[in-house]
User: Fold these one by one.
Assistant:
Number 1:
Amino acid sequence: MNNIFESLESEVRSYCRTWPAVFDVAKGSYLYAEDGTAYLDFFAGAGALNYGHNNPVLKRKLLEYLERDGVTHGLDQATKAKREFLETLDEKLLKPRGLDYKVQFPGPTGTNSVESALKLVRKITGRESIISFTNAFHGMTLGSLSVTGNSMKRGGAGIPLVHATPMPYDDYFDGQVPDFLYFERMLEDSGSGLNEPAAVIVETLQGEGGINSSRPEWLRGLYELCQKHGILMIVDDVQMGCGRTGPFFSFEEAGIQPDIVCLSKSIGGYGMPLALTLIKSEHDVWDPGEHNGTFRGNNPAFVTATEALKEYWSDDRLEKSTIAKGERVGEVLDELVAKYDGALAKGRGLARGLGFEDPEIAGKVSKAAFDRKLILETSGPDSEVIKIMPPLTVSDEELEQGLQIIRESVHSVLA
Ligand code: PMP
């Protein structure tokens, strides 16, 4: 690999160590190194590339927009691209699902959406503390890190800025599911320090936390508990939204309407930064200018986002194919679990994982896969899970090819 990365790039970088190639071109489910080697990408920008690299439909719209000198940076002005995005979001996503949200553009990335949500729930309720979950991940800024359940990710950031109390996530006790009794007692006990939280923040499936999937009934139970105690519910759908688990919103299966939803990653559709905070209308208590920023909204990303909604969310084809492809991944993972002691199949939709008791194994499998030209990230508190997240547009052939490499890679490490 080119030495410039060693000599000039900060030590904070990480992926170029894991995947020592210099990538140049990207198309569909593939990344191509500058020497032309093709790598199947089952990482997909950690959920930022649900429609694949340089998706041709989105690319056409983007090129047309740039060709006619469409606004690129409009700060916060009203633009045609923004209006079309908002109209399409309403028509394709919110109305058909009976969802009533106002849309905030909180800043360029997922963590900006989480920050705005944390600020807003404090403003709405006048309370400060937030309930978060074990193994949660919500981003790298101080508020988001305060509700992130992984001390390593906090780096040297020190004391959390937001008063956050972690509670056990569904499935925390090795398959024994925590009920809400503990939670409820803590809420009712004035000495617990947990009385009167402003909100809970939850992922329906923890991507960075190790592909831990919560059950819809757990999520619904949490929602009902929140309603009973007047606690707001924030669903962080930054990674699992935009169809990663099947439906556009990962909480749809639970039949709930969270007070606030954080979206980013694949909402722009083309791998360009765009973040949204969806706020139930009655909770939109922002005053003008209270939460601003130079890169709120992104006009070229509005163009691709609009097209992605039209192309993929006008019917349920993508949702169905994601569920079917996810089940196929699940079958192969079950096969591996039956063969190798201690392996654990995780996830739902096309957010799947294979966990190992020894974290070193996951790292070795990821490396073995890279050697076989498949990109697989690891996740979990000790990076003990290989994370399988191809673009949702992956073809059946590409999926089979990737699954075969996963089989071979696991075999090469464990056999
Ligand atoms: N929330 C979740 C659930 C995430 O997975 C991530 C990113 N991995 C974030 C928030 C932060 O998003 P970003 O990196 O775009 O700031």
Number 2:
Amino acid sequence: MTRFARRAERVQPSAIREFLALAGQPGITSFAGGYPDPTLFPIEQLHKIYDDLLTPANASALQYTASDGTPELRALVAGRLTADGMPCAPDDVLITQGGQQGLDLVAKLFIDAGDVIVCERPTFLGALIAFNPCEPAYASVPMDDEGLDTDALEQVLRTTQRVKLIYTVPDFQNPTGRTMSLARRRRLVELADEFDVMVLEDTPYRELRYDGERLPSIKSLDTSGRVIHLGSFSKILAPGLRLGWVLAEPEIRENLSLLKLAADTQNGTLNMRAAAAYLSGFDIEAHIAGMLPTYRHQRDLMLASIEEHFPAGVRWTRPDGGLFTWVTFPEGLDTAAFQRDHLIPRAGVILVPSAPFFATEPEVNHARMSFSGVPDDRLVAGVTAMGGLLREVLA
Ligand code: PMP
């Protein structure tokens, strides 16, 4: 449409939408979604909380409230962040519509058309969708099992003009499941200081750790206020609440608040009140700890099934947490075509082909596979069928 603004050119429908519509249909096994397991939502507790809130004494739960978020929820989030090595006050926290709104607001605050955002290779597709309307240019930095390669990052920072922001998902990244090592986190902060760029740390999977020790957040290593930390209740409580947060220096936080006011006035008061009631009335740490064995089991089952059934020449990541493994097929295999021609029609299996996860120079021979929420028998049957088709196609 010629009357659309220029930014509309950068808001194209994603190729993923088509086949994601298949998820949930009978006969389809979806490794594509990456949704948290709905059997793990604390429904009974939330039911009681909403019942209480929807009474005349709590009519203010249906009223407008502050655009930064309700004071109780900001304080509770600040308390959890402080306990996680990021000492902060309620005023330092902005409540957002999920982590996704944080991505949108940060891009709006920092990115003029042509400014460069440095992303991991591959990166979270939803972040690219959020950033694109601001018309950024992208640079991307390879990853290995220690996360973003900071030597390659240094090279990019040395040779690229107008870098404003480095975007990273350090814990159990979407889509690779990889975690950035402590040494790399430190180096990233050093490089950001040296080259004077902002860092956007996005951590929705941070608390879904199944093995090993929690690493300090990048924000906790930041001494110059250049790291913006995003978090979310989507994976630890429920994504339908649409609740996330931004932790940032006062000047940044205030400007993000103004942009949030412009975008949507505030998050729904009812959901913020409910989340605050959940956090103060129940033990969310116990709730999270209670979810981990389910996800750990699903991860182990998927990795073991892949190991058993995928042919030689296929590689995959072994995530310590989160919801995803990233599978790399031999070069020459186009995952989207393999899915369209074989996986869907012959096995009823869907996953997410890799190309849209690349900010630059897309690679087509990988896939993101989520182990969350697929019943054991379907998971094993899906991976087994996929292995058989891969053997055939790669032969
Ligand atoms: N960042 C990453 C890396 C994600 O994977 C997601 C979604 N799963 C989000 C942000 C946004 O999630 P939400 O808006 O539900 O918090």
